[in-house]
Specification:
The complex is a heterodimer. Chain A is mainly alpha-helical. Helices cover 77% and strands 0% of the residues of chain A.
Chain lengths: 327, 333
């Protein structure tokens, strides 16, 4: 373990803890550290205790997990496609999930957590299936551009359908908040779902890390080492679909996190996916926790969608990466 | 070119037929006989109002917007030598839309017919400025060691995402009613159409398409590749910028009245390319006509499918366009 890696991990954990603490403290009502400790260890059901345990804490944890999961799935995709421009939201996976959530929110208003999740899963399967089709057709042998274009087209398609559904159900502004992403209404139920699905799928995906390492050297290299690139790609996409679905079901469509975090991490610690994936998780959490604090604070008492903040960093990052594209 | 002439005749007839059908169908149905009577001056008040004040301007607007976008896409695909280039995907429409939204809601919350005339008259020009700004951004970002088609598209996707985020931010601060109106508009819609808008954009679009037609031979040559074009004496860089601006302006004018209609500029030119020889003399007008037809048909569905709720026509177009786009993509060599 190099000292650079140690520092990156140490700084990351410190930043994350700081962010978690601040996220509980700061808000419409500022809460002191001692009161937070009191709420944890001597829960008495006062206003503050309720606020901390049932509003701030789930919200903060959702930020941690969604950020981490998105950044990690971004790093996986980039590894498998051997291109720094891949990201689940750019390829339309999140938008497919958004469409189905929109449909369920119009059809069953009292849908509840699990309906949302299963609908999101269905949507993510459809768009993930399209990406699988592209994978089998192997169109990204000509560089990432075609598949990015396809992703853009698909996300426009799904969002268009979602807008129709929302217009008919007169819920278009709610939908826009959903599309822009945010952690306003996170409850413990949603959080448990996120925790269970997220950790199972990401652990399974992490087992592919060493294979992604080999795959990122090229299809020929991996075949000669006895690893079928198709199988790894398909498995990776299969694990990524529920991850994206659960993120969308909890927090809406937060784009670009999976794009720039893995890229920065790659600059810092290199191309080993066994380290890159967990570190992307760590720093993805940090970014979203702080973005969520900013979303609450900047135009208080109103809230801005978190997705806008990630787009603020993500779009310039994307443009810089495009400049570096060879083809 | 007998075959080309037949193709043209067929599509012009189709355009007229669909135009008549869109006069007939709506929440107030009219028979063909009624329409003829009204045109001859024998219709009653209701019929006259429906045709002259509501349906006819809307059809005119659809035809104008459709042709502008069709020509714009046709030019863009020629200069980037990429069949997937499209002003809606690369953020040109979005730039125009952003500026118009800012302009309209700068001091009031009125839309369409309630807008003061002094504001309406500047809308196409504001849209042009907006689209030129986003075009300039794309151009500067993509222009590294020459303008590479693929990088241009990627930069466009990035710029588009950025502008969409700004529009979203702006929209979310609106009240629900305003929001729905702006949403319909940013997704492309013809429901605010009136003669005012038709007269406003008609001269601009006619002039721009005329310029494109005049210089169509240069487009032919540009399509052959940089080296060949240079060797026959075309100033490739200069011409490419010229056509890029031309196509941007066309897209901007269309966006200024009808909102952001994506994928139409992809469909029309692609279909046209399959039907006539690869000369822009024929391709430009045919793309215009076909795009106008597609927009009219899409508008017919958008108006009547979920009546009385109207779906933004841009959404109908993307539902048609995206599968075709993906099909093109998968079958590329």
């Amino acid at each position: 373990m190099s000292s650079r890696l140690k520092w990156t991990i140490a700084i990351g954990i410190l930043l994350l803890l700081l962010g978690m603490l601040l996220s509980i403290q700061i808000g419409a009502k500022d809460i002191s550290t001692s009161e937070i400790l009191k709420a944890f260890f001597q829960f008495e059901g006062t206003m503050h205790d309720q606020l901390i345990m049932n509003v701030r804490l789930p919200r903060m944890l959702a930020g941690v997990f969604v950020g981490g999961l998105l950044a990690m799935s971004g790093s996986m995709m980039q590894g498998v496609m051997r291109n720094p421009l891949a990201d689940p939201s750019l390829l339309g996976v999140n938008q497919g999930a958004t469409l189905m959530v929109a449909i369920s929110s119009v059809l069953w208003v009292q849908g509840g957590v699990f309906t949302n999740f299963f609908m999101a899963l269905l949507g993510a399967c459809i768009s993930g299936g399209c990406i699988l089709l592209f994978t089998i057709k192997n169109i990204y042998k000509q560089g990432i551009t075609p598949i990015l274009l396809a992703g853009t087209a698909m996300s426009m398609f799904f969002l268009s359908l979602a807008s129709i559904v929302a217009l008919i159900g007169n819920r278009s502004q709610e939908l826009a908040f959903w599309i822009a992403g945010g952690f306003r209404q996170v409850t413990w139920d949603q959080l448990w779902l996120l925790l269970i699905v997220g950790s199972v799928c990401s652990l399974m995906a992490y087992r592919l890390a060493s294979k992604i390492n080999i795959l990122s050297m090229g299809d020929e290299a991996s075949i000669s080492l006895g690893i079928s690139p198709e199988k790894v790609k398909i498995k990776m996409i299969l694990w990524m679909i529920p991850i994206c679905a659960v993120c969308v079901a909890v927090a809406g469509n937060i784009g670009f996190v999976g794009l720039f975090i893995p890229h920065i991490m790659r600059k810092v610690i290199g191309n080993d996916y066994r380290i890159l994936m967990p570190l992307s998780f760590l720093y993805g959490s940090i970014v979203l926790v702080f973005a969520d604090i900013a979303a609450r604070m900047l135009s208080a008492p109103y809230e801005l969608p978190v997705g806008l903040f990630s787009a603020c960093i993500g779009v310039p990052a994307f443009l810089i990466l495009v400049q570096k594209e060879k083809r | 070119m007998k075959k080309s002439r037949n193709v043209f005749l067929f599509f012009i007839l189709l355009l007229i037929v669909i135009g008549i059908v869109s006069i007939m169908i709506g929440s107030y149905h009219m028979s063909f006989h009624d329409i003829l009577q009204t045109f001859l001056g024998k219709g009653d008040k209701l019929q006259e109002f429906t045709i002259y004040q509501s349906r006819l301007p809307r059809i005119m607007l659809a035809v104008l917007v459709g042709s502008a976008l069709g020509v714009s896409g046709s030019i863009l695909q020629s200069i980037t030598r990429n069949p997937l280039a499209e002003p809606g995907v690369i953020g040109i429409n979005a730039g125009a839309a952003l500026f118009v939204v800012l302009w309209i809601s700068a001091s009031s919350s009125a839309y369409y017919s309630e807008l003061p005339f002094a504001k309406v008259i500047f809308i196409p020009f504001i849209a042009m400025i907006g689209s030129l700004v986003s075009m300039l951004m794309i151009y500067l970002l993509a222009n590294k060691k020459g303008l590479q088609p693929m990088r241009l598209l990627l930069c466009g996707i990035g710029v588009n995402a950025g502008i969409q985020a700004i529009i979203t931010f702006y929209q979310l601060n609106m009240s629900k009613g305003d929001y729905n109106q702006v949403l319909t508009w940013t997704n492309g819609s013809l429901w605010g159409s009136s003669w005012q808008y038709v007269l406003l954009i008609l001269p601009i679009i006619v002039i721009l398409i005329f310029i494109a037609m005049m210089r169509s031979r240069i487009l032919d040559v540009l399509g052959l590749g940089d080296e060949l074009a240079l060797s026959v004496g075309v100033a490739v860089k200069k011409e490419r910028v010229f056509f890029f601006v031309l196509s941007t302006l066309l897209a901007a004018v269309a966006t200024s009245v009808a909102g952001n209609i994506a994928f139409l500029a992809l469909l029309g030119p692609q279909i046209a390319k399959k039907l006539v020889t690869n000369q822009y003399r024929y391709l430009i007008p045919l793309s215009a006509i076909i795009s106008a037809i597609i927009l009219l048909v899409a508008d017919l569905f958008a108006k009547n499918l979920f009546s009385p709720i109207e779906i933004p026509v841009g959404i109908m177009v993307s539902i048609l366009g995206v599968p075709y786009f993906l099909y093109l993509m998968l079958n590329r060599k």
